[in-house]
Amino acid sequence: MTTRRAPSAGSATPRRYSFERYLAAKRTVDDRALNAHVWQALAEAAAERASHRTVRVLELGAGIGTMAERLLESGLVPSMEYTGIEAQAKLAQRAGRHLRAWGRRRGYGISGRGDRLVLRLGSGETSLTFRTGDVLEQAPRLQGRADVLMAHAFLDLLDLPTALPVLLATLRPGGFLHFSLNFDGVTAFEPAIDPALDSAIESLYHRTMDERRLDGRPSGDSRTGRHLFAALRAAGAEVQAAGASDWVVTPVGGSYAHDEAYFLHFIVHTLEGALRTRPELEGRALARWVERRHRQIERGELTYIAHQLDVFGRVSARGRAPR
Fold first, then answer.
1. pTM for this entry
2. Which among 298, 55, 30, 272 is positioned nearest to 175, based on CA atoms?
3. Residue 13 within a domain
4. pLDDT tens for residues 61-100?
């Protein structure tokens, strides 16, 4: 008879959901997902820039600062001026607190106050600034200032043809972009519950992304990853590296790593919220499906996959589309 380890702590279905905790829980999922080939292209470009001057990094949708932390941990740019734009003030504030505590634990000299934090270690110095606001409103104020523009699990919330020209204008001529975890049309839950219902739910969930509107305008779509290539060319950027960055969360020995059970519960909760009012789905069928998925997570049985793409590129040194 086989035995099963108890599910990891926190696997019970949450009564309340925290977006902040979700962002923290997905850190390890994202770390596995990030495409190593595309990240290496970023590393090489950043190293070349760092040999000449402090590298200015601008991140769109900075969340709780996990990408800034990832850049610091990797040593990608020893001296960096990082600016993160985040729409939610409480997330930006948490990012500052978290990175201050992170720096103390690792022996950095720390200074700065308010929305600006300076970390010093050896000859390296990193300044971190978090701005609160809409990225499309903030971007024109930062035109031509960044060496590297980053967006992580974010661009599928924007209408690429209208947003990219505004966002890419924040780069200096010849600047680089690293756009990671761009959703690309595949959501999968295993094992199957009811193949027909599973397929309908996943298809409708993608349709909510395609039909999403913000202030009456399109707001992203479910195939942002593949659409990004043509949209970047049209906006004057050249793609230099690309690859898959799929989320894959599966139990090992009946248990999920770190806080990834919470991550899965949040994904199922988000899907339920998106589909609860869809007339194409019978409400009780959706509720039963959601409840069974939560139970699968609690028992350490659910595997979740989402297909995404990472892209690295540059804008022309002359400010025109590369040929």
1. 0.90
2. 55
3. no
4. 999 999 999 999 988 887 899 999 999 999 999 999 899 9
Query: Does some domain include residue 9?
Result: no
Structural domain contains residue 320: no
C-alpha pair distances (Å), 288 with each of 14, 131, 161, 194: 17, 42, 39, 11
H or E element in which residue 262 lies = helix 260-275
DSSP 141-197: GGTT-EEEEEEES-GGGS-HHHHHHHHHTTEEEEEEEEEEEEEEEEEEEES-S-HHH
**What's 136's domain CATH number?**
3.40.50.150
Give tens-digit pLDDT for 36-54.
Answer: 999 999 999 998 877 777 8
d(CA 181, CA 261): 20
Run of H or E including 307: strand 303-315
Asked if 189 and 198 count as a contact pair (C-beta separation under 8 A), the reply is: yes
Specify the DSSP class assigned to residue 143.
T
Q: Which residues on neighbouring strands pair with residue 215, listed in sequence order? A: none
Count of structural domains, the chain = 1
Q: Which two tokens stand for residue 290?
A: 């959601």
The residue with tokens 């992580």 is 152
